[in-house]
Design brief:
two-stranded antiparallel sheet; binds calcium ion
């Protein structure tokens, strides 16, 4: 293999797989806390972080699959970020509403 072919091959690998040049480093697993408790909404939760209230900080929006009260199945929770952009913190949550009613979706 010629020198230029090796350089071209390495360049191709770095372009095709840029994440291989600096693999991500993950910390230990931990639950996101809200008001001192771990957030647990069951499975099929699909959490997203988005600035929902427009204050510049990403909030947590997550569906809840189950609840002790069956009438709350499939509702959407809004956790306002009361921390910072680099150290988010969640103190409480509310159900997201539309036209005065809690938004509710079925799983699947
Ligand atoms: Ca926000």
């Amino acid at each position: 293999m010629t020198k230029s072919l090796v350089i071209g091959f390495v360049f191709l690998i770095l372009c095709a797989f840029p994440s291989m040049a600096a693999p991500p480093v993950f910390g230990s697993i931990s639950y996101i806390q809200c008001g001192g408790d771990s957030i647990d909404v069951g499975f099929f939760s699909d959490p997203v972080f988005v600035d929902f209230d427009g204050d510049g900080l990403k909030d947590l929006i997550v569906g809840q699959y189950f609840d002790e009260n069956v009438e709350n199945y499939g509702k959407m929770r809004f956790y306002q970020n009361v921390g910072t952009s680099t150290d988010p913190s969640f103190a409480s949550w509310i159900y997201i509403q539309a036209d005065g009613s809690d938004i509710q979706c079925s799983a699947g």
